């Protein structure tokens, strides 16, 4: 008899997965290695930024009081008494109607409170003249204008982007405390599967899910081990799953989670004594997506159908891995957009449609069955169409989940 499964709403399923996330602890790594990792300590400003008043331009440091009354007909002259570049500090103090030639980034000399840009001055041999008054602090980059000492600049749990690296470098972190990353195993199940380098045979297909998941992990910067292909045979699959589950923090299997005669993952979970969090989700594709936990480790049973497999990874595996790293934003980025074409196929379950989002309009990315491979490659987003009896019309406002945000864009039409 076919087992009766109760579908769980997607959002509840995601929550249930996240609740089980085990933290992996933290490690200190070199700053240069930290891009893409999750910060495990808040970054606190150890100094003001900038830490001294400085010139944001190449020009002349002056006392603004000396510039009062300057006009085109009444140019005021300043004697240039010193010349400093970035990194140099003048030993001179400005007296009335003197100026110091100063380059971008150099510390403002004592007495100076304004900077005249080169283009605002006319130079002579030993002096320069100006034709307008300067206000106090005009053209000055003030100490602490960017960040204040002791300010919490970035919270723990943040993704380390290139800007975060710049901040860490600014505050002298040559090493940084980050969350340890999960080590993930991938096992593709299915007697029909061939390795990528094998010739097609009748009834067989190449394993596309395995390499796809490696790439999905890679774009999160996460390491993994491929356990290859396992045929649909209970004992054999059980042994591989058992081994893989102990060697990794999280095992992703593809295929074999449905209720077919050769779908052995449910029996394998039972043998392992795993707690099945759910084995049916109210979504298309991938309603058979199953998530279990054994010995504090995740077992993700993704559907073998490529589109379902892809979607299951993005909806469940990705946030779970991020939660294991205590990331403060484990969910996929999302937005809303106008649907670019009608989508009339109604469904009781929430539908995730692989789609192309151009910043304004989102349109299905072609062939959209759960076994589709092409639309995964062509899409950069998932349209979320809540279940119900009605279809959707071109122009409807829909939710969109954004994928692979680190990817580039076509030529700009700004
Ligand atoms: P299953 O989830 O095992 O019922 O498989 C559903 C569909 O996905 C079947 O048509 C399988 O042949 C196909 N499939 C299963 N595993 C893979 C894989 N690793 N790569 C590509 N297609 C697969
Ligand atoms: Mg199968």
UniProtKB/TrEMBL annotation:
Catalyzed chemical reaction(s): adenylyl-molybdopterin + molybdate = Mo-molybdopterin + AMP + H(+)
Listed EC numbers: 2.10.1.1
Enzyme kind, highest EC tier: transferase
Cofactor annotation: Mg(2+)
Pathway: Cofactor biosynthesis; molybdopterin biosynthesis
MoaB/Mog domain segment(s): 185-323
Keywords recorded for this protein, A-Z: Magnesium, Metal-binding, Molybdenum, Molybdenum cofactor biosynthesis, Transferase
SMART domains named in the record: MoCF_biosynth
Function field: Catalyzes the insertion of molybdate into adenylated molybdopterin with the concomitant release of AMP.
Record-given protein name: Molybdopterin molybdenumtransferase
């Amino acid at each position: 008899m076919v087992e009766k499964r109760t579908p769980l709403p997607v959002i509840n399923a995601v929550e249930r997965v996240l609740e089980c996330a085990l933290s992996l602890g933290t490690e200190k790594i070199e700053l240069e290695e930290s891009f893409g990792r999750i910060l495990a300590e808040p970054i606190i400003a150890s100094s003001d930024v900038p830490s001294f008043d400085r010139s944001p331009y190449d020009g002349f440091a002056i006392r603004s009081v000396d510039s009062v009354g300057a006009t085109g007909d009444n140019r005021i002259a300043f004697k240039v008494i010193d010349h400093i570049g970035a990194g140099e500090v003048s030993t001179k103090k400005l007296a009335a109607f003197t100026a110091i030639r100063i380059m971008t980034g150099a510390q403002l000399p004592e007495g100076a409170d304004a900077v005249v840009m080169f283009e605002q001055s006319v130079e002579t041999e030993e002096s320069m003249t100006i034709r307008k008054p300067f206000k106090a602090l005009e053209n000055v980059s003030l100490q602490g204008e960017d960040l204040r000492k002791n300010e919490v600049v970035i919270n723990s749990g943040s993704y380390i982007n290139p800007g975060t690296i710049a901040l860490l470098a600014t505050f002298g972190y040559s090493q940084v405390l980050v969350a340890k990353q999960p080590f993930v195993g991938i096992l593709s199940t299915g007697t029909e599967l061939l390795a990528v380098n094998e010739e097609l045979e009748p009834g067989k297909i190449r394993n596309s899910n395995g390499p796809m998941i490696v790439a999905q992990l890679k774009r999160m910067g996460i390491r993994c081990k491929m356990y290859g292909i396992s045929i649909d045979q209970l004992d054999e699959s059980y042994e591989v799953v058992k081994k893989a589950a102990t060697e990794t923090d999280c095992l992703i299997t593809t295929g074999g989670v449905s209720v077919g005669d050769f779908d052995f993952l449910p029996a394998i979970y039972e043998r392992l004594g795993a707690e099945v969090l759910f084995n049916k989700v109210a979504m298309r594709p991938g309603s058979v997506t199953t998530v279990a936990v054994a010995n504090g480790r995740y077992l993700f049973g993704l559907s073998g159908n490529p589109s379902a497999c892809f979607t299951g990874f993005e909806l469940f595996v990705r946030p779970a891995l991020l939660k294991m790293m205590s990331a403060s934003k484990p969910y996929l980025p999302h937005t809303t957009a106008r649907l670019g074409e009608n989508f009339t196929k109604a469904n009781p379950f929430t539908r995730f449609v692989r789609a192309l989002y151009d910043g304004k309009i989102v349109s299905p990315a072609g062939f959209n069955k759960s076994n589709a491979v092409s639309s995964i490659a062509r899409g950069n987003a998932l349209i979320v169409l809540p279940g119900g009896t009605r279809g959707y019309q071109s122009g409807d406002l829909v939710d969109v989940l954004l994928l692979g945000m680190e990817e580039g864009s076509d030529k700009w039409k700004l």
